Amino acid sequence: MPTVRLAVPRLSTLWATALIGASCGIPQLAIAGDWLGSSSVLRPSDPLISQPALLPPELTPGRNLVLLRGKRQLLVLENGRELRRFPVAVGMPGWETPVGQFAVIEKRAHPEWKHPATGVVVPAGPANPLGSRWIGFLLDCKGRSGFNGQQHLEVKGCVSSGFHGTPNRGSVGRAVSHGCVRLFEENVQELYELVQVGTLVTVLP
């Protein structure tokens, strides 16, 4: 595995960078560039990185998506550099967005939406919960069970997780979904053009 140094001049704290390494089983992370200035404030819980390490090759060349679930932010990385950053909504407690490494498996413009519990289909349009774009990265056929804030839902069969738009702009920045990742409409349309089937998706806690 080649040694690669990660240059991320716009990441605001070492915390986000450390998570990228930790999620891949890497205890340390190399940082190129003096981007942590004297004015930066570190919280006591922020890990400090003092030694270099190898980055997994799948995170370095080309374009990658990194979801910082706890910070509710999605990063678009190009060869290790931050290209874009979007605020997102993530899964609510009991329906958390899955953590791990995935890849984009499908892209759909103006998708229909099928309610996972009732099977009711909502056509494409302004009332569609998926908005105007769908970018799927996980098909989970184990089913899901949990409280959605109002009632307990038992979903059997396959459930998809992905990035999509939303007609509810006020939900972005919160943990309110059933596992998917919501973006503002203008942002999901931009993201749709930035990724392709096969683009790596890393979801961090």
Instruction: Give Rg in angstroms.
Output: 18 Å
Question: Terminal Cα separation, in Å?
Answer: 26 Å
Low-confidence stretches: 1-57
How many strands in all? 15
Short description:
The chain is mainly β and 205 residues long. Helices cover 10% and strands 32% of the residues.
Keywords:
205 residues; mainly beta; L,D-transpeptidase catalytic domain-like; 2 domains; 5-stranded mixed beta sheet; 4-stranded mixed beta sheet; 2 helices; 10% helix; disordered N terminus
List the helices and strands and how they pair.
Blueprint: H1 14-23, E1 63-68, E2 73-78, E3 81-87, E4 90-91, E5 100-103, E6 106-109, E7 113-114, E8 121-122, E9 133-140, E10 144-147, E11 152-155, E12 159-164, E13 175-177, E14 181-182, H2 185-194, E15 200-204
Parallel strand pairs: 1-15, 4-13, 12-14
Antiparallel strand pairs: 1-2, 2-3, 5-15, 6-9, 7-8, 9-12, 10-11
Structure description:
Helices cover 10% and strands 32% of the residues. The chain is globular. The chain contains 2 helices and 15 strands. It has a 5-stranded mixed beta sheet with strand order 3-2-1-15-5, sandwiched between helices. The chain folds into 2 domains: 1-58, no CATH class; 62-204, L,D-transpeptidase catalytic domain-like (Beta Barrel), CATH 2.40.440.10. The two termini are 26 Å apart. It is mainly β and 205 residues long. A hairpin with a 6-residue loop joins strand 7 and strand 8 (121-122).
